[in-house]
Design brief:
flat, binds zinc ion, two-stranded antiparallel sheet, mainly alpha, 154 residues
Length: 154
């Protein structure tokens, strides 16, 4: 029997799967556009200033990057959104102080992992930040041990 004679019906990929994916990526694009517009707005600047005031009130100290511990500055550094659920009306707990390079690392880590991307935004974001801070601390310890020469050269 010729291959060409076989019926072609049923060989079409399920439409449901495609449209689900398309819907998801359209939603993501919409989020991205909204986020980009908001991040460069005066409203977001006001939220950042309000967040810093609140942080100082609560902690009686200046914020630092939650991953590397470097001093966080309003004019230079980022406020990461654990969740976009309240975009433009963020709760204090929705935001985390991060320096630019650690902020990029957090997003790359979430994007690059099926495990983290599948978790709900807020939970994944908090866990990734904890994990990266921990890895950084371990790495720093290893580096200092290495430079102290305790690793023992063969
Ligand atoms: Zn940092
Ligand atoms: Zn972020």
């Amino acid at each position: 029997m010729l291959i060409d004679a076989l019926p072609t019906t049923g060989r079409v990929r399920p439409v449901r799967q495609l449209s689900k994916h398309a819907k998801k990526s359209a939603k993501r694009d919409e989020y991205r556009a909204r986020y980009a517009a908001y991040i460069s707005s005066a409203a977001w600047r006001a939220v950042r200033e309000g967040w810093l005031d609140e942080y100082r009130l609560r902690n009686n100290m200046e914020p630092s990057c939650e991953v590397c511990g470097r001093e966080w500055e309003l004019a230079r550094d980022d406020l990461h959104h654990h969740t976009y659920d309240r975009l433009t009306a963020e709760a204090f707990e929705d935001l985390a102080p991060l320096c630019r390079s650690c902020h990029d690392l957090v997003h790359d880590t979430v994007r690059g992992s099926r495990h983290w991307s599948r978790m709900r935004d807020t939970a994944a974001s908090r866990k990734v930040i904890d994990r990266l801070r921990h890895l950084r601390a371990v790495h720093r310890q290893q580096l200092s041990r290495h430079s102290a020469g305790q690793e023992g050269a063969a």
